[in-house]
Amino acid sequence: MKTIIVAVIALGLTGCATANKEQLYYDASKAISKDLTVAQSACWGAIGEIAKGASDSVKINAIALAEKCKNDPVKVTPPKKNWFGF
Questions:
Q1: Cα(26)–Cα(19) distance, rounded to whole angstroms?
Q2: What is residue 11's predicted lDDT score, i.e. its pLDDT?
Q3: How far apart are the first and last CA of the chain?
Q4: Whether 7 contacts 14, CB under 8 Å
């Protein structure tokens, strides 16, 4: 009986030590945030170039396109905890 309990605890703690879910979560969040920043910068740069046009209708359309550059950030769900709270 003691060996079964020790084996379960050892497997639980070893699983926690080998799974690096938190680091993967932070890396994914960081990469997604960087990608969104680059995409928004490119969008605003393109709208800035469009707005430089001489026609007033082109400028109005550029303002209308500016709403499409505003997007909600993607949410990455954090890793779930195991029974021991790790």
A1: 14
A2: 64
A3: 25
A4: no
